[in-house]
Amino acid sequence: MINWSRIVTFLLITLLVFGVIGVYGEKVAKSTTLGLDLRGGFEILYEVSPLEPGAKMTQQTVKDAVYAIERRVNVLGVTEPEITVEGTNRIRVKLAGVHDQEQARNVIGKPANLTFRDMQGHILMKGSDLAENGAKGVLDPQTQQPVVTLQFKDAKKFAEVTQKYVGQPMGIYLDEKMLTAPTIREVIPNGSAQIDGQESIQEAKNLAALLNAGALPVKMKEVFSTSVGAKLGTQSLQNGIKAGVIGIALVYIFMLAVYRLPGVIACIMISAYMFLLLLVQNLMDVTLTLPGIAAFILGVGMAVDANIIMYERIKEELRSGKTILSALRVGSQRSLSTILDANITTIIAALVLFQFGSSSVKGFAVILILSIVMSMLTSVVGSRLLLNLVVRSNLFKKPAYFGVRERDIREL
Predict the structure, then answer these.
(1) What are the strands of the beta sheet with 146-152, ordered from one edge?
(2) Where are the alpha helices (DSSP H) in 260-319?
(3) Using one digit for the tens of pLDDT, what is the confidence trace for 1-21?
(4) What is the DSSP string of 116-142?
(5) CA distance 59 to 69
């Protein structure tokens, strides 16, 4: 007797899967953060060394440098910059969507070590004495000239300095370059100062942003840089998508031709797998790169492989003369250990790649691990659920629905 409630449940789940994909699929795809190789941009590899000769590079020093770079990258308006530490003394910076290389170099690598000195070169105050975001590029309300206003943390300390040097010029230095040397005409009690001489308001804002970012705790030497044009990145993305569509379409055709009804279920679950993988990537703020697309497509293959292992086991049981329900039960149990072994060993390999690989290799490893987790959820749990509903509905009783010919069935 046909169990229509199971057929209805199967159809409702299928409609739910494709309904969610249809409503949210485009939004999820467009929300995916694209990497440098897909979007175009600029990449720099820096070798860092201590500021003081003979000093040691520590892990904390490198972390401080990364933090300072992150703050400076915000000046460029870059979303999702990729800053990674390689080895013990190298920092790789990837800026997707940035094509002005000189601006990027100036903002990221320039020390911007601000000091206030007397005319003998003695340092009176440092950039670290500035209040948080205490530098601002504005137009002077009186002269309408671009200036950088400064607000110090300790107004009393600044007042004491200005009191001591009233009537004398005080040099304001950026690194070893003197920006200006205004004469202190009176005691400044409120902790405010001003740097003039900027040629444009944008120049004043850039200088203020650098000063707010603070001085880098290390020396940075550029050892490698590369630029990916927006056109080349777009082309790479289009080629990656094209390859993925063709590959997935061929997989669908193969599954439908060889496995019939289970192949239909596999196609449903693979569609769910792709949507969930993109969704989880976005929730985890994973940046999609060209190697990531390769891992994504490879994950589709692994999801299909899990289905194939299970379906082949079921077909073997059907050929041995078992009933469809019995073949499903035995085939599912026997295939599970094989699927788990294959996926666990791949996860171990991906973890090794993540631990020792470069940034692009790490991206590949992350997406590969996510792919395996999502494939286990959809191709093992989801496929078994739908297959159980179909088989227990008693609507599909012929072995041909499962890709097995009558003449291949051996009598018990």
Answers:
(1) 130-139, 146-152, 192-195
(2) 261-283, 290-319
(3) 788 888 899 999 999 999 999
(4) EE-TT--EEEEGGGEEEEEEEEEE-TT
(5) 15
